[in-house]
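User: Run a structure prediction on this.
Assistant: Running it now.
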Amino acid sequence: MTDTAQTVRYVRETMIPPSEPPLKEQGAVKWMRENLFSGWKNTLLSLVSIYVLVKLLFALVPWFWNSVWTAGSLNECRETLAVLEGLTTHGGACFAVISDRWLQLLFGFYPAESYWRPILVFILMFVALAPILFSARLPKQMLWFSMLFPFLGTWLLWGGSFWVPILVILGFVVGAVGFKIGGRFAGAFGAVALGVAGAALWWMVAMPTINGALHKAVALSRIDGTKAELIETLATNPAQIDAIEAEQAAVQEKINELTAEKDVLVVEMLAAREAGTEPSSDQKTAFNAIMDELMVERRHYTALGFTAFKLQQAISDANGLLANIEALPQWEADLPKAIQTAAAMDAALPDGLHNLVSVNQVPAGTSPEAVDALRAYLDADTAVLNLRANIETAYERLGTLGLAPVTSRDFGGFMLAMIIGVAGIVLSLPLGILLALARQANLPIVKGFAVAFIEIIRGVPLIVWLFTASLLLNYFLPPRTSFDLVLRVVIMVTLFAAAYIAEVIRGGLAALPKGQFEAADSLGLDYWKSMRLIVLPQALKISIPGIVNTFIGLFKDTTLVGIIGLLDPLNLSNSIRAAAEWNGVYWELFVFIGLLFFVSCFSMGRYSLWLEKKLQRGHR
């Protein structure tokens, strides 16, 4: 008899957890096998790249790690490396030049007591850009501040009377009124012509007259008080300068004592290293303490010298302004006589010589008497211009009610790069859009002008246009016209960038399907509404990478302004390296400047990626 087996079917009710994949199929090992060592060629290239990277890291990491931040010169950096670390000349970075000159690298020769002005402008710039860059997250009312910021920022940077930016804004108001009036009676062309003419007349005629009248009124109301203040300045400043010089002498004596102590300690520590022993921790602590105290005393000495310089400058300014106040009544009395004399000489000139501005322009065959008469008239006319300039300058200096004026020659460093770069970026984008639309226009004149402008600008290097702005632009302006150099550079950089942006946007317009244009026409929209509401938003979205790439290139090209004498960061680094105490420093300055530019350009690139992702509509 056999047993009968009872079989029961088994059905699993839960899933078995998946097994772990092999080590070579997961994590970092899988990534390296697929991306670095997928074949013998990739393996060879990866090994060579890793070798080069390791060599670079072994060279750079100690250079950064052993860097010196507290020193007054390159020699002191080398002493610090030698006595503390036992390193050779190039064993560590001398970043002490950054801690010593970083304000100069940022602001150039901008007055130190006014550093708060560019810092405030930098902060307000982000406030003004925020409603434009992040329009969906901020109220639209902030755009009013964005519109006012260019005028406020310009006034804060260059200074002057507070009413100057208000008068400039009124020019746009006059232009808008002229545009509306012209649109009612003369159509679109008349509106544009009347608007531009009204704004130009306001800025060129009305604004200088009103500005001069306000300066004169304020100057006359405060001339007696200003004169008393100037006399007091001349009486008190010399004593203050003497006291500062005495304090400087005491500080210098302290610096000499600390330097002598440091030199003795350096000799002892170097002797210990030559004997094969490490300097004691007490010696290292004492050396660091002396270096820290030396830096404090040197900064104190520099601050005292700056204060004495400002006091001496105040004496010079007071003497000059007092001389102007004393001479002002005589200048005003001499001006009508000088004008009459110049007018009489002009009337007596022979025909054909009235509009000449130089005796070199006299036609051949002119008599010597006529040449002498022209020369005398030009001298008289120059005397009139000088008198007017002296009177206007005196009233402007006496009547300035606002911030102390700062000339463009004092601008420099990264601040100058930011001014030129941001202004060029903000102004070139709308101009580039107009040029792109003009190049696709059906009007032959408009299209031809846009094509000629773009091709001429793109066909000439930027450095040539900068030389044009610096040297040649004055030849195309009226005689004796003064045009700010930074403003000229901003105009040229803007025009140069606008030509490239126009081509980028034209590519975006060409990439749009024809149906988008037809859809705009089917809605009954006119040209400008169809472009503003339908076509341009899509074209600009497509063109974002190219536009931001152009902006980054523009910002980096601001370093070229050093060619025409402006103190960009690279030009300032050359000036710093020319100083005796920092002669021989190279990489540290370039690393710092490169880091500043990298942070700015990287930020623009990241914003570009964020904006592209935000505007992406492929998933909807």
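Residues 350 and 449 are 42 Å apart (CA to CA).
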